[in-house]
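Narrative of accomplishments. A recurring question from our advisory board has been how the design workflow behaves on a single, concrete structure rather than in aggregate. To address it, we present the structure tokens for one chain from the evaluation set, followed by the sequence designed for it. No filtering or post-editing was applied between the two.
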């Protein structure tokens, strides 16, 4: 095999596998079927991957690496920058902005971040659908796969995102309520929307962009519910 063809062949095996896993389920997809659909021989699959698990692990690791990179970019370019310029101060219960202009700018950048994450999730919807399907199986190795998202919204020395924010303002911490809210009211809605977008588009007879715009308006409503003056609350004001 030509060396220049190797990355292309490996990617074709990976892409084909993910499509099959999302359509037929992980257990319902054999290596023989992957080889047939990817138009490669079975031995070549084992040249690149030890087994089916390694194929899916590779796709999942890539998914979370991309999500982490997008989040870290937002943290560095928005949160750290605004903290450094004294426009944002993190308190135990809120993000406090120096004025409304700074708060509005933060919300605008936050919504741009949501949009980039949403597009990325839509692009990776096949992997997300696999994780959702596997999460319903008690005996699956990947039954807790969706909870890997918690790694980026927890106080952990291995969490680069947490360490980056904490280095900029040591008052920052992830409370249990904040983690719960971000997981169930931000991450999971994005995962669900991306996974079911094509199905909902067919049922609603609406265009992708119309549905995306509507979803982002819902995200905006959710964010604004936590605004109090020039503060963005980090937990429900009633608690």
């Amino acid at each position: 095999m030509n060396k220049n063809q190797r990355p292309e062949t490996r990617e074709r095996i990976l892409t084909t596998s993910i499509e099959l896993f999302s359509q037929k389920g992980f257990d319902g997809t054999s290596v023989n079927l992957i080889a047939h659909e990817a138009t490669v021989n079975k031995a070549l699959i084992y040249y690149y991957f030890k087994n089916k698990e390694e194929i899916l692990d590779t796709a999942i690791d890539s998914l979370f690496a991309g999500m982490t990179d997008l989040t870290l970019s937002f943290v560095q370019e928005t949160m750290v920058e605004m903290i450094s310029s004294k426009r944002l101060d993190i308190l135990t219960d809120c993000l406090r902005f120096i004025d409304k202009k700074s708060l509005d700018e933060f919300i605008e950048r936050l919504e741009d971040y949501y949009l980039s994450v949403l597009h990325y999730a839509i692009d990776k919807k096949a992997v997300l659908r696999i994780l959702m399907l596997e999460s319903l199986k008690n005996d699956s190795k990947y039954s807790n796969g969706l909870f890997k998202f918690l790694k980026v919204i927890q106080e952990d020395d291995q969490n680069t995102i947490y360490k980056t924010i904490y280095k900029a303002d040591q008052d920052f911490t992830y409370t249990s309520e904040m983690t719960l809210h971000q997981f169930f009211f931000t991450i999971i809605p994005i995962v669900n929307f991306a996974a079911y977008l094509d199905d909902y588009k067919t049922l609603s007879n609406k265009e992708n962009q119309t549905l995306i715009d509507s979803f982002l308006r819902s995200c905006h409503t959710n964010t604004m519910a936590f605004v109090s003056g020039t503060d963005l609350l980090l937990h429900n004001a009633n608690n």
